[in-house]
Amino acid sequence: MPRDDSFRDFVLDQLASVPGVRAKAMFGGHGVYAGPYFFAIIADGRLFFKVSAESKKTYEVWGMETFRTGKSYYEVPSDILEDSEQLAEWAETAIQAARKAVEK
Q1: Contact 49, 40 (CB under 8 A)
Q2: How much is the pLDDT for 1?
Q3: Rounded CA gap, 51 and 40, in Å?
């Protein structure tokens, strides 16, 4: 049965203002990149962004869950997902977190 990529397409459309964003299929979902930085996961109709120690607190205030058992990616609230400008701002923070993780 073919996979329904409509949620992936929606996310990419919402992130259209973020330079170099693309998704790659992986493990039944998609990894989302901006340039060389892996900053998001699309899985099971949900979007998760990479967090830093600082940005993690914002997701916790919203009561968001982590991706599976990891603590590095948190689900993006639906209110943010629906607002492309806010989503782009959150994505930039996630890209910075991904960049910092690579530079360590």
Answers
A1: yes
A2: 40
A3: 9
